[in-house]
Design goal:
Elements (H helix, E strand, L loop, with lengths): L2 H19 L1 H14 L7 H13 L3 E4 L8 E6 L3 E7 L13 H16 L2 H4 L1 E7 L8 H7 L8 E3 L15 E10 L15 H15 L20 E6 L13 E10 L8 H16 L2 E3 L2
Parallel strand pairs: 3-4, 3-5
Antiparallel strand pairs: 1-2, 2-4, 6-8, 6-9, 7-8
């Protein structure tokens, strides 16, 4: 065994030893985060708990970064190469940590602690990024725009799942809101004078559903290639308020989204979808708006 191999093995053992020593703390952290059930941008206790733990472990902690009260960074090491590790900790409304962000956050902390043990020897700085609002709002995007990732050479994270997998691929998503405004009418006397906004939304949803089969997928040449691009996958009608004049709704709203890999595939979708929403409005004599 040469010197470099022995040195690398020794570093790995030191890193593993620190992880083993903090194993109970990490499990306790995961359980504690699981009990908090804090939603996007409201993860006050969860963010504070992780930040306090990192500070107590010798990391330099900056709280409330990027004008986000529940975002933070924790750094250790002095190397020029900055390795970012993202820690998630927000829950879902109604179902708590069904997505496993308590595991994600604890695993990120464990990775940061174990890497920090050998950071100076391998010439890196470890930067744990407390990223709020993964489930709704996009805390990572906010932190990118706020400059938290500017010095990071590589960023990574761990996500809970049913099996171990390295290098998992995910789909990008774009979302928008659509509103139709109709005309109320008396249901018993002049129903023909009314314009039903729900009809327009139904027509748009059917048109988008029929469009799916015409979308050209991305060819995959190898098993490791990105998955085929997918057309818009949802158009969910929102609340439909009824007017006192009768059962014809005067306004209907919906959320629509498109997913693909890579994100550049989505550039041509919004115009196509906007046209289908507009045609539905013209067919039913309603007004449409896509912010």
């Amino acid at each position: 065994m040469n010197h470099s191999t022995a040195f690398a093995d020794a570093l790995r053992e030191r890193s593993r030893a620190r992880l083993t020593a903090r194993q109970d703390d990490m499990i306790a952290l995961s359980h504690s985060l699981h009990a908090e059930l804090e939603l996007a941008y409201e993860e006050t206790r969860s963010a504070a708990e992780i930040a306090d733990l990192m500070e107590g472990s010798g990391f330099a902690v900056a709280r409330g970064v990027c004008d986000l009260p529940t975002a933070f960074t924790a750094t250790a090491g002095s190397g020029d190469l900055v390795i970012g590790i993202c820690a998630e900790f927000d829950a879902l409304p109604g179902i708590g940590h069904a997505c496993g962000h308590n595991v994600n956050g604890a695993a990120a902390v464990a990775a940061a602690l174990s890497l920090a043990e050998i950071a100076d020897e391998i010439g890196v700085t470890v930067k744990l990024l407390g990223t709020p609002a993964e489930e709704y709002g996009g805390g990572k995007v906010d932190m990118i725009h706020g400059g938290a990732f500017d010095d990071v050479a590589a960023a990574m994270m761990v996500h809970a799942g049913p099996e171990d997998c390295a290098g998992a691929r995910t789909l990008a998503i774009s979302s928008w809101q659509v509103s139709y405004t109709g005309t109320p009418a008396h249901a018993a006397v002049m129903p023909h004078r009314g314009v039903n906004a729900a009809d327009a939304m139904t027509l748009a949803q059917v048109a988008i559903g029929l469009q799916r089969q015409q979308m050209i997928p991305v060819a995959s040449s190898t098993a490791s290639s990105p998955p085929p691009a997918r057309p818009p996958t949802s158009s969910r009608p929102g609340p439909t308020p009824l007017t006192t004049a009768g059962p014809r709704p005067s306004k209907t709203c919906a959320s629509s989204s498109a997913r693909s890999a890579p994100v550049s595939r989505q550039a041509r979708w919004p115009p196509e979808l906007t046209w289908r929403f507009a045609v539905s409005a013209m067919t039913t004599s309603t007004c449409t708006r896509t912010p």
